[in-house]
Specification:
The chain is mainly β and 126 residues long. It has one domain. 9% of the residues lie in helices and 52% in strands.
Length: 126
């Protein structure tokens, strides 16, 4: 059975360069936003909210892939080791721009060829 993929690009020399594709994650992604407003108490005791120029941040997400043959593991490890800024374009044409912060691979011992279950944390930049 063929696996679906998402396009991935790396930021190099001031522009986005295609770097092939990554498999669609095998588990649900939790996408969240966090407001950056601050609540303050005024002199009269009332509360007010201050909103800075950056109004919100996207929360980090964890991508999960099962039964990887080492291909995804190597690719994501390279992004982590080189602190590579990437753009992932998903199946809805949504762009996810940021960096993979860490990768955790569970080696499925006894499988031939070697197989891994992978979790990779992705921090948004934009």
């Amino acid at each position: 059975m063929a696996r679906n993929t998402w396009s991935i690009y790396i930021y190099s020399g001031g522009s986005w360069v295609a770097d092939g594709s990554i498999y669609v994650p095998n588990d649900t992604l939790t996408l969240g936003l966090t407001s950056t407003h601050n609540k303050i108490v005024l002199a009269d005791g009332d509360e007010a909210f201050i909103t800075p120029e950056t109004k919100y941040n996207k929360n980090p997400v964890t991508f999960i892939w099962y039964d990887d043959d080492g291909t995804m593991k190597s690719k994501i490890e390279g992004y982590v080791q080189n602190n590579t800024k990437v753009k992932i374009v998903d199946s809805n044409s949504e762009e996810h721009i940021g960096r993979f912060k860490q990768i955790r691979a569970r080696w499925l011992v006894g499988e031939s060829p070697d197989k891994y279950d992978i979790e990779a944390d992705f921090d948004y930049e934009e």
